Amino acid sequence: FQFITLAGWHALNASAFELALGYQRSDMAAYVELQEKEFAMEADGYTATRHQREVGAGYFDLVNTIVTGGQTSTLALEGSTEQEQF
């Protein structure tokens, strides 16, 4: 939605600004707070905590594997922290 609406533009930029202020005030703890907020929103249907899945990395890994006959070293999910965590 951020590509087509003024509300999306403001939501994207305001959240980035808030994160920047958080970094200034509390370093990486600001990122932890952001992640905790995201995990809490999962109960309402938020899915972006799993960013690799959100952008279709698994699909493109499958296409890559098929096209190369399994001889690939450039898979996004293989060995990723997201694969281990989720």
What does this structure look like?
The protein is an all-alpha fold and 86 residues long. The protein has two domains: 1-49; 51-86, no CATH class. Helices cover 63% and strands 0% of the residues. The protein has five helices and no strands. The protein has helices at residues 6-26, 29-41, 51-54, 57-67, 81-85. Helix 1 (6-26) crosses helix 2. The longest helix has 21 residues, at 6-26. It is elongated, with a radius of gyration of 17 Å. The model has no long low-confidence stretch (mean pLDDT 84).
Short structural description:
The protein is mainly alpha-helical and 86 residues long.
Keywords:
single chain; mainly alpha; 5 helices; elongated
Would you spell out the secondary-structure blueprint of this structure?
Layout: H1 6-26, H2 29-41, H3 51-54, H4 57-67, H5 81-85
Helix pairs in contact: 1-2
Which structural class should the secondary elements be placed in? mainly alpha
**Shape call:** elongated
Report the portion of residues in β strands.
Answer: under 5%
The mean pLDDT is 84
Order of helices and strands: HHHHH
Gyration radius over CA: 17 Å
Fraction of helical residues? 55-70%
Total number of β-strand segments?
Answer: 0
- State the assembly state of the protein chains: single chain
- The rounded distance between the terminal residues' Cα atoms is 26 Å
Instruction: Report low-confidence residues grouped into runs of 5 or more.
Output: none
Biggest sheet descriptor: none
Number of helices: 5
